[in-house]
Specification:
427 residues; mainly alpha; Ammonium transporter fold; two-stranded antiparallel ribbon; 2% strand; Ammonium_transpt
Length: 427
């Protein structure tokens, strides 16, 4: 048992490092789609990485993952928490995090290991939110927002869903690696920023052509998807929180969904728009498959992963058409049709595609078989729980995010840069 715990810690540390790579890779993705002139993308993601480690260590990790107070918020003063724990070095080095003990997940992860892994998730989630910031939002305003994000906006939904004492977890909601906690919340938080920037631009009389910012750079785009694929190797398989056979199955389900969705996306694009294959469509397809499979990667078979990946093509195509019709939404990286829509769809599919033979070794023995595998009433109940959790979390994130932006805007006389060096003008 001790040997397996050591192996678990080693595996999850490696997975955390891979996930941290994804934060910087998102900056490469922006440059790949918007052109190398947007070097601020790299500065932004580097800042996010450093800020996440600091804020999560001080308070964010405890709020998300310490034993919760009435299932709503992790105890920020938990005596074995990250900062308070290192006051006693021997306790910090040898202490297994409370939720990794036999009473809960029984993977033997140390506090330091689990902190590093979950902080990497918090970091990449904000990086996804930041893809809609472009150069329009003041960097200082985004930095202040990031602190609030790591204290409340990301951490509270994580406490509800990923913490075994969280109220949504106890209700039965599951989200394996973050279809909602990462992708869905990033989408709705990004939408709140888009709305706030739109309101300020409208008040200032600023207009711009949202398609003018697209400047594809094939090299940067290819590099970004390579790094994101590497990162996802830690993102989904690492979420088993143990190195076992199921972690290896999750590797297969993750990459099967990604490859199938790539083919599906390019196929549907050709079918409806008669456009030949290109790097942007292939990248969007891979990302859509990865996003959809994320909340169920540890609950489904490789065959189901192929089906889910195939659904990613038409889903992204439909989402892209839908959001492009809303003129004030400037989302060139595809946060809304990709991460928001794909993540939420994936969470809802838990109730359809789950097979207990895969869920049990992933640490979720209470998940019923999905509707497509004879789950019956229990699966329908699971669907209701997942849908309820989605509505609650999205509403919470949007409200808290928008209120935070209003306060920041008030204190800084607006969150947008008025003098943009892009194709904008005052009317």
């Amino acid at each position: 048992m001790i040997t397996s715990y050591i192996l678990n810690n080693f595996w999850v540390l490696i997975a955390a490092l891979l996930v941290f790579i994804m934060t910087i890779a998102v900056g490469f993705l922006e440059i790949g789609e918007l052109g190398t002139s947007l070097k601020r993308s790299l500065l932004k993601t580097i800042m996010i990485s450093g800020t996440s480690i600091f804020v999560m260590a001080i308070i964010g990790f405890n709020i998300a993952f310490a034993p919760t107070i009435y299932g709503f918020i992790g105890n920020p003063f938990y005596y074995n928490g990250f900062i308070l724990g290192i006051i006693n070095p021997s306790s910090f080095i040898n202490n297994v995090w409370w939720s990794m003990t036999p009473k809960y997940f029984d993977t033997g992860l140390l506090t330091s290991t689990y902190f590093f892994f979950e902080t990497a998730f918090a970091s990449v989630t904000l990086a996804l939110v930041g893809v809609i910031v472009l150069r329009k939002m003041k960097l200082k305003a985004f930095f202040i927002y990031s602190i609030i994000y790591f204290v409340f906006i990301w951490t509270l939904p994580a406490a509800w869903i990923w913490n075994p004492t969280g109220w949504l977890y106890k209700l039965g909601m599951r989200d394996f690696a973050g279809g909602l906690v990462v992708h869905g919340t990033a989408g709705i938080a990004g939408f709140s920023i888009l709305l706030k920037m739109h309101m300020e631009e409208k008040k200032a009389g600023i207009t711009r052509n949202k398609r003018d910012v697209i400047k594809i750079n094939d090299g940067w785009l290819t590099l970004s998807i390579l790094l994101l694929l590497m990162g996802w190797f830690g993102f989904n398989p690492g979420s088993v929180l143990a190195f076992n056979n199921e972690a290896l199955v999750v590797v297969i389900t993750t990459f099967l969904a990604a490859g199938t969705a790539m083919l599906s996306t390019m196929g549907f694009k050709y079918l409806f728009k008669k456009t030949g294959p290109n790097i942007l469509d292939s990248v969007n397809g891979i990302l859509m498959g990865l996003i959809i499979i994320t909340p169920l990667a540890g609950f489904v078979s490789p065959a189901s992963a192929i089906v889910l990946g195939f659904l990613g093509g038409p889903l992204f195509f439909a989402g892209e058409n839908l959001f492009s019709r809303i003129k004030w939404i400037e989302d060139p990286i595809g946060l809304l049709p990709g991460h928001a829509l794909g993540g939420i769809f994936g969470v809802m599919m838990i109730a359809f595609f789950t097979e207990r033979i895969f869920a049990i070794p992933s640490g979720d023995p209470n998940l019923p078989n999905g509707i497509l595998f004879g789950g019956g009433y229990q699966a329908l109940h699971q669907f209701g729980v997942e849908l309820f959790g989605i509505i609650v979390v999205l509403a919470f994130v949007f409200i808290i995010s928008y209120i935070s932006l209003m306060i920041i805007s008030k204190s800084m006389h607006g969150i947008i840069n008025i003098n943009l060096d892009v194709d904008s003008k005052k009317q």
